[in-house]
């Protein structure tokens, strides 16, 4: 630990992205970015979300890695400390391609049989965990 670092070593403020730091899939406000910067002077900041890091960068103007000390994207399956990758896992690697394809086919089949008012949109987006 850097002896000049005045942040509390015992506290990490961990925030969810969509619905907490931003409205779902929208950009963070200047006020929120300023708040995180000020809070980051006193505490370690962590940002977590279901989206991949690229989507989080879109929401925070590309500097999400600069404003947070830790980042957990893809539902926590990809972890960074600053810009350094700490750990990464994926459902495909865990299940294997054959079982993963079987799961996807089941999910798509199940979704296609649902009776809902309007059936449009993104039903499945490939991520490390989905």
TrEMBL record:
<keyword id="KW-0460">Magnesium</keyword>
<dbReference type="InterPro" id="IPR023214">
    <property type="entry name" value="HAD_sf"/>
</dbReference>
<dbReference type="GO" id="GO:0009298">
    <property type="term" value="P:GDP-mannose biosynthetic process"/>
</dbReference>
<keyword id="KW-0963">Cytoplasm</keyword>
<dbReference type="GO" id="GO:0046872">
    <property type="term" value="F:metal ion binding"/>
</dbReference>
<feature type="binding site">
    <location>
        <position position="127"/>
    </location>
    <ligand>
        <name>alpha-D-mannose 1-phosphate</name>
    </ligand>
</feature>
<protein>
    <recommendedName>
        <fullName>Phosphomannomutase</fullName>
        <ecNumber>5.4.2.8</ecNumber>
    </recommendedName>
</protein>
<dbReference type="InterPro" id="IPR036412">
    <property type="entry name" value="HAD-like_sf"/>
</dbReference>
<comment type="similarity">
    <text>Belongs to the eukaryotic PMM family.</text>
</comment>
<comment type="subunit">
    <text>Homodimer.</text>
</comment>
<dbReference type="GO" id="GO:0005829">
    <property type="term" value="C:cytosol"/>
</dbReference>
<keyword id="KW-0413">Isomerase</keyword>
<keyword id="KW-0479">Metal-binding</keyword>
<dbReference type="GO" id="GO:0006487">
    <property type="term" value="P:protein N-linked glycosylation"/>
</dbReference>
<dbReference type="GO" id="GO:0004615">
    <property type="term" value="F:phosphomannomutase activity"/>
</dbReference>
<comment type="function">
    <text>Involved in the synthesis of the GDP-mannose and dolichol-phosphate-mannose required for a number of critical mannosyl transfer reactions.</text>
</comment>
<feature type="active site" description="Nucleophile">
    <location>
        <position position="16"/>
    </location>
</feature>
<dbReference type="Pfam" id="PF03332">
    <property type="entry name" value="PMM"/>
</dbReference>
<comment type="pathway">
    <text>Nucleotide-sugar biosynthesis; GDP-alpha-D-mannose biosynthesis; alpha-D-mannose 1-phosphate from D-fructose 6-phosphate: step 2/2.</text>
</comment>
<dbReference type="InterPro" id="IPR005002">
    <property type="entry name" value="PMM"/>
</dbReference>
<feature type="binding site">
    <location>
        <position position="16"/>
    </location>
    <ligand>
        <name>Mg(2+)</name>
    </ligand>
</feature>
<dbReference type="GO" id="GO:0006013">
    <property type="term" value="P:mannose metabolic process"/>
</dbReference>
<feature type="binding site">
    <location>
        <position position="25"/>
    </location>
    <ligand>
        <name>alpha-D-mannose 1-phosphate</name>
    </ligand>
</feature>
């Amino acid at each position: 630990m850097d002896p000049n670092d005045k942040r509390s070593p015992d506290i990490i403020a961990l925030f969810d992205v969509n619905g907490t730091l931003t409205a779902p899939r929208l950009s963070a406000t200047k006020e929120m970015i300023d708040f995180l910067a000020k809070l980051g002077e006193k505490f370690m900041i962590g940002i977590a979300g279901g989206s991949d890091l690229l989507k989080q960068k879109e929401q925070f103007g590309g500097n999400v890695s600069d404003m947070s000390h830790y980042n957990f994207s893809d539902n926590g399956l990809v972890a960074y400390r600053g810009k350094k990758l700490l750990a990464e896992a994926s459902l495909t690697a865990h299940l294997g391609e054959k079982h993963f394809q079987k799961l996807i086919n089941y999910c798509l089949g199940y979704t296609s049989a649902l009776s809902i008012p309007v059936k449009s949109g993104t039903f499945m987006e490939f991520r490390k965990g989905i």
